[in-house]
Amino acid sequence: MTTCGPECKLGNLEVSDIDPGIRTRKEYHDIAGLASDIKRRGLIHPIAVMETETGYKLLAGGRRLLAHAHAKIETIDCKIFPPTLSELEIKSIELMENTMREDLSFYEEAQLSREILRLQQQIHGVKYSTSPDAPGASIRTVAEMMGISHEKLRQDITLADTIDKFPDIGWEKLKNRQEALKIQNNIGRLVVTQQAVERFEKETKRGNTDEYMKRLANSFVVGDFFQCVKEIPSNSIDLVEIDPPYAINLGKIKKGSGKYSYGEDGYNEIDAKSYDFFMLDTFRECYRIMAQDSWLICWFGPEPWFSLILVWLRDSNFTVRGMPCVWVKGDEGGETTSGQTNTPMRHLASAYEMFFYAKKGDPKINRQGMTNVFGYKPVPAAHKIHPTERPLDMMKDILTTFVPEGSRVVVPFAGSGNTILASYKSKMTCIGFDLGKTHKDSYVARLTMSI
Q: Which has the closest alpha carbon to 165: 183, 152, 143, 142?
């Protein structure tokens, strides 16, 4: 017999000599299909049994044992464990064998892996030393025993803990483990954000936060722009940067609050049927607060809104050309680095976005001679705190193109807050509004780490 580890040996036993006992798992599906597969390809994973005085007791592999009986195969490959196993060791073996089931969901597998580690450490003690000969069980040694990487076992344990802490997320509805890990990472970022905001608020109450930092944080206001803008005096703002919902993805419209139906958190979307009223109200409020000679920047989805945005701007008394500015999602040399399309069989991937620059009165461009193309790489997905976040350096470039230092800026839909931060880094003042408190929390957390 070939050894299979210090506690067991491999063997081929008579099926009739194995006592299945009372199994935890009551139902076994598609025994006939498994039997046919074993007859064709053989048994890939041996079952686990323990020697007894009268024969062998099944530890794990009830479905495989039944399939052999169904196929009238008289012998079966086994991992044979000694009769001296403790109840904890038997339980650990059962769990390890269960990880080989093909019908395990990712969350069942994560919970099984965590329980195996717990049992192994209960049996052998916790291993703290990095020496390979040191006693005890660690994530690395248990992973080797299970035949998986220690990183996968670490991820599974963390995932199982996260599922326990946040049971209402609906983990069972997720497609796969990768989706679950993404949500886990987002939860981790949210927890870190909350901790950073709490520290900032405590330090502010103690008087340990400098005035510049407090001003930056207070420049992001959680509230409905259409209500908050009433507090801003007429004819007082030098530039307004509008990055509105694009109303181009009706399948993801979110129920929200405020004057229009856009969500309190996440990406805020507008029903296309009310988009004209939304944009006209936005433009008219902005026109009121803008100084006599001032600029407005408005990002938009060119399909289907290009011509309509022009009409709505002009109906709101702005002067605007039909030639927009373009953000090419690449480097300054114009080489694109990313594009996106949901229908690659029918459409090329879009690697740019546009904004119109409109004016009230007759302002002069601050950096004359600039082109209408801005080449900047997008914010990496892993670093985004808002789904439509724009690069900070690009926003500084755009702002200083139109207005000088000391200008006053308003951002109706602040999102990530990068335009607010870009304004202050360009020696301007700014105030921005957003319904999502989570967006401000992420903005404040970023401030505490970057300023």
A: 183
Q: Which two tokens stand for residue 32?
A: 């006939």
The number of distinct structural domains making up the chain is: 3
Q: Are 20 and 41 in the same domain?
A: yes
pLDDT tens figures, 95-119: 776 666 656 788 888 888 888 888 8
Percent of the chain with pLDDT over 90: 41
Task: Note the pLDDT tens digit of each residue in 196-254.
Answer: 888 888 888 888 778 888 999 999 999 999 999 999 999 999 999 999 887 655 334 33
Question: Distance (Å, rounded) from C-alpha 362 to C-alpha 88?
Answer: 81
Residue 253 — φ and ψ, nearest 5°?
A: -65, 140
Q: Identify the domain containing residue 144 by its residue range.
A: 105-208
Token pair listed for 65? 């044992």
Can you tell me the distance from the alpha carbon of 270 to that of 61, in angstroms, rounded to the nearest whole number? Answer: 54
Question: Are the C-beta atoms of 430 and 259 separated by less than 8 Å?
Answer: no
Q: Which pair of tokens denotes residue 121? A: 């450490």
Q: Say which DSSP state 283 is in.
A: H
Residue 229's CATH number: 3.40.50.150
**Co-location of 395 and 255 in the same domain:** yes
pTM over 0.85: no
- Tell which residue, 114, 111, 105, 103, has the closest CA to residue 173: 105
352-360 and 319-320 strand pairing: antiparallel
